[in-house]
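Course assignment 3, question 2. Fill in each field.
Student: A.L.
Task: Predict the tertiary structure for the chain below.
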Amino acid sequence: MHPTLNTVTLALSGASGMAYGLRLLECLLAADLQVYLLVSQAAHIVAKQELGVALPARASDLERQLSEGLNTRDGQLRVFGREDWNAPVASGSNPADAMVVCPCSMGTLAAIAHGLSDNLIERAADVMLKEQRKLILVPREAPFSTLHLENMLTLSRMNAVILPANPGFYHQPQSVADIVDFVVARILDQLGVQHEIMARWGDSR
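Answer field:
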């Protein structure tokens, strides 16, 4: 486990790029981190459309399915509903060490930028900003409108990390999985989580 990182909130919103979020979940759990998972209603639709994955609607069912499928230790993965205001992530008295919204829709990004906190994803992100914890947003959109860019700049000025899902190709990817891993590796680097899912620049591998 990373010495300064124990808990991570991972939010899957309704943007395209669900493969990034689910691969990140796998890597965080493999690193033996405690993960709080938040899934928007739109994310269920995207997961089915892009990956053919049917995510259970009930948080308890989703937690059970993912915990069994990813072979987690007891209590390592906790899944909360969009209005579960009793979740630890809803309060600044018990925030995670870091939070990632991946993929991050422009609607979610805008709501976070303006402090709307209408659901648990938005509230958890608001908590991270006010508690000055690490918040990483992974937008998957093109092109960005002026409004999108202004919202990103607003969040960047509040020390959020804007990490668009823009894969590089200098590692000569051979598959879609390699492209996904490039972006996930950058997120893990920002979190300070050690990994070997892709070679680094200058490595001989």
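Instructor remarks: The longest strand covers residues 98-104. The helical segments are 18-30, 41-51, 59-69, 106-113, 120-130, 146-157, 176-191.
Grade: pending
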